[in-house]
Amino acid sequence: MKIIAKLDIQKIQYMNVFEKVVGLKAKYCFNYDSIIIFAVPRKLVTKAIGRNAENVNRLMRRINRKVKIVAVPTSRADLEYFIKVLIFPHKFRKLLLQNNELIIFSALREKAALIGRGKRRLHELSDILEKFFSIKKVIIK
Question: Would you state the pLDDT for residue 2?
Answer without folding.
Answer: 47
